[in-house]
Task: structure prediction
Amino acid sequence: MARIGDAEMVYTNKTLISRSTIDACPNLKFISMLATGYNVVDYEYAKEKGIPVTNIPVYGTRSVSQFAILCCWRSATIFHDKTVHEGKWENCADGCYWDYPLIELAGKTYGLLGCGNIGMHTAEIAKAFGMRVITYDGRQSETALNLGVKYVSLDELFAQPDVLGLQMPLFPFNEGIINKENIAKMKDGVIISNSRGQMVVEQDLADALNSGKVAAGLDVVSTEPIHGDNPLLKAKNCIITPHMSGEPRKVANASWTAQWKTPRPILPVCR
Result:
């Protein structure tokens, strides 16, 4: 409230703009989310007050899609990289090894809860890997249909995928949609990739992770920064990153090697 003060326009990201904030800032005439998700704004109350709320629908579209697909390999890659550095490959009697079965995506089913901009690009990548792609979305897209994406019911979306990506904005109907009842409908070993923390009942997901029912690659949680008592922090079969998938480094005229070897500070930093 103090930061907004008597400003008429607010540009923000990941900051709660609640009813009380709107009431405390009577000059407010416009709110812009500098990201895709706008659930941190009480947009229904803003509408009542005649305050437009905008977002950036294509923010981080390709990088979030990339992140969602890569979560299928991250666990195996991180684990085996660690074993190599610990000397296991050096002392291996054979030319190669793997400590648990790896995943070949070709022929597997990728399920998308939501097939908007991010979902569409994720579908493109998944199809390039030879995956079948299905989605549940309230609106059908001609582009998605042309890509070969099949629209299914919500129950079919839970039952069929080998990988399930949650790539829909947060709405009342999907808050807490990943719960023990819907997890029970899923295949054993399904990988869940999440882009909205409030879609998940975190204790239910933690229980499923610990039982081996599912694995997960999560870039978001319900409350951020993550709280130390979040059950996902101690869950098995789970990789968590700090809401970073929409923040790729864009350095003009720089090689991959230069970017990798000379990391640069990037705002925002954790304060």
